[in-house]
Specification:
By secondary structure, the chain is an alpha/beta fold. The chain folds into two domains: about 150 residues, Rossmann fold; about 280 residues, L-fucose Isomerase, Chain A, domain 2. Helix content is about 40%, strand content about 25%. The chain has 15 helices and 19 strands. It has a six-stranded antiparallel barrel. It has a five-stranded parallel beta sheet with strand order 2-1-3-4-5, sandwiched between helices. The radius of gyration is 25 Å and the shape is elongated.
C-alpha cells in the first residue's frame, strides 16, 4: 500500500465552554502535540483540525467522507457535531480521556485536567454509546499502544480494500469448495478482479524471450539452493521467464494479486508457476494463489494484510496421530524473516515437469493455520507447533504440525487448501475478521 493519509484528527470544542479564544487555542495546541507524539503524523495521520463553529463542521464533514476521523472532544456540547461527522464516515476513532491514569506526559497533564473540567468525558460517553448503539464501527484511542493497534487495523483494512486480483484462466475443476463469485468478493470487501485467458499469458511469455534479467534471477535462484534436483538451467530460466510475464501482466492491469489455473498452464506450456508464485508471495506488495482458488487468494490477502508476513498455501493431510501435514510444490522462501529459508530445487510432483521448490523451516516454530470459505462468510483458525519437514511421496514442500485433536480441526475444515503464516497470529486474525470483515470465525484454541 502506498503511504497516504488515512486518519484525520478533529478536535471538537464548544465556544460555550471555551469563551476565551486564546485559552482554547492553547488547549488545542497542547492536544495537537499529544496526538503528534503518537507517532503517526505525516505517515498515516494528518495534522489536527479544530471544529468549533458551523464553517469548521462543513470542512470536517468533507474530510470524513475520504478519511477515518479521529474524534477528539475537548469540551461538552459537541456531541451532535461529532455524530454528524461519524455518520459521514465509514468508520471512526474516538479519543477517550483517562485523567486519573498516568498515561500523559507532565507537560500535558494540566491540559488534560482542563479539558476534563470542560465536560469532555460526558461527550466521550455519549458519542461512544450512540455510535455503538447504531451499529457504527468505532474504535478507542487513548495512548500510543491503542493508537498502534488502531492504525494497524486501518492499514490492513485499506490493503484488503485495495487488493485487485488478476485471475488467469479459471478455478481448476477439482477445487470444489472455493467460491467463484468475484462480484460477491467485491461487494463485501472491495476486492476487485480482472479476468484474462491463459492465451494472453502464453503470448506475454513469448514476448518476454530469454532476457538478461530472467537469466540473472535464475542463476541466483540456482546458486542459493541447498540442492538442485531434476530441473536443468534451461527449465529454471523458463520458470523465471514465466515470472517476468506474470509481473508484466500484473503491472499492465494494475493488479497486486494473482489466482492462476496452474495445472492447465503447465499442461499446455510445459512450465509451472511454482517459482512465480513463490517470488510474488515473498514480495510485500503481492499475493498469489494456485489452482485459481479464490477463497485461498482472499485468505492470503487478509493474512498478509494483517500480519505483514508471506502466506503459504498448502494441501492438508490429516493424520490419526494428531498431526497435520501441509504440502505444496510452491512456497515463499521468506516465511520466517527477510532471510531466505533453506530450499531445494525440484520438479513439480504431480506432472514431473519444470521447476518446483522444497522449502524448509526449523521445527519448534508456531504456525497459524487458517482459511476463509463458505462464500466468504466463515473462517477457521488454529495455531500449531511445527514438528518436522517430512519427505513423503507428495508435493515438494512439506510441513508437519502437531494438533491437540485432529478431528476438531478436520470437522471445521472449510476446504482443501489451508493457509499458513508462521507466528502466533490467531487471536489477531480472528478479531480482525470478525470486527472488520464481518466473518463468522471459529478460532480453535489450543489446550495449552
Amino acid at each position: 500500500m502506498d503511504q497516504r493519509i488515512l486518519v484525520q484528527p478533529l478536535i471538537f470544542a464548544s465556544p460555550v465552554y471555551w469563551p476565551d479564544s486564546g485559552e482554547m487555542g492553547t488547549a488545542v495546541k497542547s492536544v495537537s502535540e499529544m496526538l503528534g507524539n503518537l507517532g503517526g503524523e505525516g505517515e498515516l495521520m494528518a495534522p489536527p483540525v479544530v471544529v468549533a463553529d458551523d464553517e469548521d463542521l462543513v470542512r470536517a464533514l468533507s474530510m470524513a467522507a475520504r478519511t477515518v476521523p479521529l474524534l477528539v472532544p475537548i469540551s461538552g456540547g459537541v456531541q451532535k457535531q461529532m455524530l454528524s461527522v461519524a455518520r459521514q464516515a465509514g468508520e471512526s476513532l474516538l479519543w477517550v480521556w483517562f485523567p486519573k491514569d498516568n498515561i500523559y506526559s507532565e507537560a500535558h497533564r494540566e491540559t488534560v485536567l482542563r479539558v476534563v473540567s470542560k465536560n469532555a468525558l460526558p461527550a466521550c460517553s455519549d458519542v461512544w454509546g450512540a455510535l455503538k448503539g447504531r451499529g457504527r464501527r468505532v474504535g478507542r484511542v487513548y495512548h500510543k499502544e491503542s493508537w498502534r493497534r488502531a492504525a494497524e487495523d486501518i492499514k490492513a483494512a485499506d490493503r484488503i480494500k485495495n487488493t485487485r486480483l488478476l485471475i488467469v484462466g479459471y478455478t481448476q475443476d477439482w477445487v470444489a469448495s472455493a467460491s467463484v463469485d468475484t462480484r460477491k468478493m467485491e461487494d463485501l470487501f472491495g476486492v476487485s478482479s480482472r479476468h484474462i485467458g491463459l492465451e494472453e499469458l502464453f503470448a506475454e511469455y513469448e514476448r518476454c524471450g530469454d532476457g538478461a534479467e530472467g537469466i540473472s534471477l535464475a542463476s541466483q535462484f540456482a546458486a542459493g539452493a541447498r540442492k538442485l534436483g531434476e530441473p536443468d538451467m534451461k527449465q529454471i530460466e523458463e520458470a523465471f521467464r514465466l515470472y517476468r510475464a506474470l509481473k508484466n501482466l500484473l503491472s499492465r492491469y494494475g493488479c497486486n494479486g494473482l489466482a492462476i489455473s496452474c495445472f492447465s498452464l503447465a499442461k499446455t506450456l510445459g512450465v509451472t508457476a511454482c517459482v512465480s508464485l513463490s517470488m510474488l508471495n515473498d514480495d510485500p506488495g503481492f499475493i498469489a494463489a494456485c489452482e485459481g482458488d479464490l477463497d485461498s487468494a482472499f485468505s492470503m490477502a487478509v493474512g498478509k494484510a494483517v500480519t505483514g508476513r508471506p502466506i503459504f498455501m498448502g494441501n492438508p493431510v490429516y493424520n490419526l496421530d494428531n498431526t497435520l501435514d501441509l504440502v505444496h510444490c510452491t512456497a515463499p522462501r521468506k516465511l520466517l524473516s527477510d532471510k531466505m529459508q533453506p530450499y531445494e530445487i525440484r520438479s513439480h510432483h504431480e506432472t514431473g515437469l519444470s521447476v518446483a521448490q522444497r522449502v524448509e523451516a526449523e521445527p519448534g516454530q508456531v504456525g497459524t493455520i487458517f482459511r476463509i470459505g463458505a462464500e466468504f462468510k466463515k473462517a477457521v483458525i488454529f495455531e500449531a507447533p511445527l514438528l518436522d519437514n517430512p519427505r513423503e511421496d507428495t508435493c515438494r514442500t512439506q510441513f508437519r504440525f502437531g494438533l491437540d485433536n485432529w478431528e476438531e480441526c478436520f470437522d471445521h475444515m472449510l476446504g482443501c487448501h489451508h493457509m499458513l503464516v508462521f507466528g502466533r497470529h490467531g487471536s489477531r486474525l480472528a478479531g480482525f475478521m470478525r470486527d472488520r470483515l464481518g466473518i463468522d470465525v471459529k478460532f480453535l484454541q489450543s489446550a495449552e
